[in-house]
């Protein structure tokens, strides 16, 4: 499973958790389904570890991530954002803050694509606006 697929799986699990579902059961199903297609046991252990790290990291920092997201909303509040969009934003923001080896442009593009795929047709532009504003304010912070 590629990192992009792992991030998409993590976003789906975050959404399921937000809606009160069992993320652990769904993770097992996602990994099991992918494992049937191809790959080794070691690859799937790595996939599971990455997905769990992303899901747990976002869950542990959800309040802080939400505060950051709220600071970039114009005319919106967190409770008005589509839940899928909120999960995409949380995950992308977490990745921007914790994945120094992944270019910010890649993280934002993946987030925009995820929002467009799993949410509304306007969600990609919304997610792009929030993440781009965040990045503009924090570009020099990593230097």
Structure description:
- By secondary structure, this protein is mainly alpha-helical.
- The protein is built from seven helices and no strands.
- It has a single domain (3-138), classed as Orthogonal Bundle (N-utilizing Substance Protein B Homolog, Chain A).
- 75% of the residues lie in helices and 0% in strands.
- Helix 2 packs antiparallel against helix 3 (41-60), helix 4 packs across helix 5 and helix 5 (83-98) runs antiparallel to helix 6.
- The radius of gyration is 15 Å and the shape is globular.
The largest sheet is:
none
Helix content: over 70%
Average of pLDDT: 85
Helix and strand composition category: mainly alpha
Gap between N and C termini: 31 Å
Uncertain regions: pLDDT < 50 for 5+ in a row? none
One letter per element, helices H and strands E, the order comes to HHHHHHH
| Radius of gyration using CA atoms only | 15 Å
Shape designation: globular
Q: Would you identify the CATH architecture?
A: Orthogonal Bundle
Report the CATH C-level class. Mainly Alpha
Give a quick summary of the entry.
The protein is mainly alpha-helical.
SSE map:
Blueprint: H1 3-18, H2 23-37, H3 41-60, H4 62-70, H5 83-98, H6 104-118, H7 123-138
List the keywords.
143 residues; mainly alpha; 7 helices; 75% helix
């Amino acid at each position: 499973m590629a990192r992009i697929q792992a991030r998409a799986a993590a976003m789906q699990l975050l959404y399921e958790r937000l809606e009160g579902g069992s993320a652990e059961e769904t993770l097992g199903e996602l990994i099991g389904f992918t494992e049937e297609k191809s790959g080794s046991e070691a690859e799937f252990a790595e996939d599971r570890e990455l997905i769990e790290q992303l899901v747990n990291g976002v869950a542990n920092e959800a309040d802080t991530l939400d505060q950051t997201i709220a600071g970039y909303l114009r005319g919106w509040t967190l409770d008005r954002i589509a839940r899928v969009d909120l999960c995409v934003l949380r995950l992308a923001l977490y990745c921007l803050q914790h994945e120094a080896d992944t270019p910010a442009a890649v993280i934002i593009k993946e987030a925009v694509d995820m929002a467009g795929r799993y949410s509304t047709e306007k969600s990609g532009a919304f997610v792009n606006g929030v993440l781009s504003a965040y990045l503009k304010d924090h570009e020099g912070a990593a230097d």
